[in-house]
Design a protein that fits this description.
88 residues; alpha+beta; two-stranded antiparallel ribbon; 12% strand
């Protein structure tokens, strides 16, 4: 599904890539990594699966109420830090 749509987009287009739970999400995450690596481009990812985002992202920007509340590499944003940011 994702690969089929890629040929019709330029890099300036926004691509909405919902990651369906009925399929193997790991395959979708690998596809996103491939897009990033093959096109050598930054990609914004909106995803609630923290483990998936941490495995894909080189750098994270966490937002709450429309503002960036944290910015760092995945290794430095621990689960404890995420809980602190979002739960107080």
């Amino acid at each position: 599904m994702i690969r089929q749509g890629l040929n019709s987009f330029s890099l300036s287009d926004v691509i909405d890539l919902p990651l369906p739970r009925a399929r193997n999400p790991e395959e979708d995450y690998e596809t996103v990594k491939g897009i990033r690596d093959n096109y050598q481009t930054a990609m914004p990812i909106v995803e609630q699966n923290v483990d998936a985002v941490f495995s894909i992202a080189d750098r994270l920007y966490l937002m709450a109420l429309g503002k960036v509340v944290a910015e760092d590499v995945p290794a430095k944003l621990t689960r404890e830090r995420l809980k602190e940011l979002f739960l107080g």
